[in-house]
Amino acid sequence: MEKTIYLAGGCFWGIQKFFDQFKGVLRTRTGYANGPTAHPKYEEVCSDSGHAETVKIIYDDSVISLKELLDHYFQAVDPLSVNRQGEDSGIQYRTGIYYSDSSQLPEIEDRVREESEKLGSPLAVEVLPLSNFYKAEEYHQKYLDKNPGGYCHLPDHLFNR
Known about the structure:
Shape: globular
CATH topology: Peptide Methionine Sulfoxide Reductase, Chain A
CATH superfamily: Peptide methionine sulphoxide reductase MsrA
């Protein structure tokens, strides 16, 4: 069955490419989530609009579970870092797990608690219902596929598993 989760993990170019590689991920889309204004442009997001660079992930939960997606997510982000991933800093680079289906919340909370216990510290990962999501401009979609030498804060070893 198709399900959706929204993950913010720094620059969305790398997060999208990272999740596109997993069997069961059907589609991804980069966008701007949980900000105060409608239809922001990239320049506004980079000027602290309050939106998070986020990847909408549509997946087949009979092939890949939400727990597996979150396991991958925690491999790709520094969950203790506030408003920073890699060299990118600013509110748009915060980490977050945003859900549109409240039935996902217990599983999300369990996985976040597990990661927090493993690290021995509270996480800087927002866990919130999705309040809004606006598709990023077309040039941001599958950016690293179109620009293979483009910047990515994720290490190469996370790709092509």
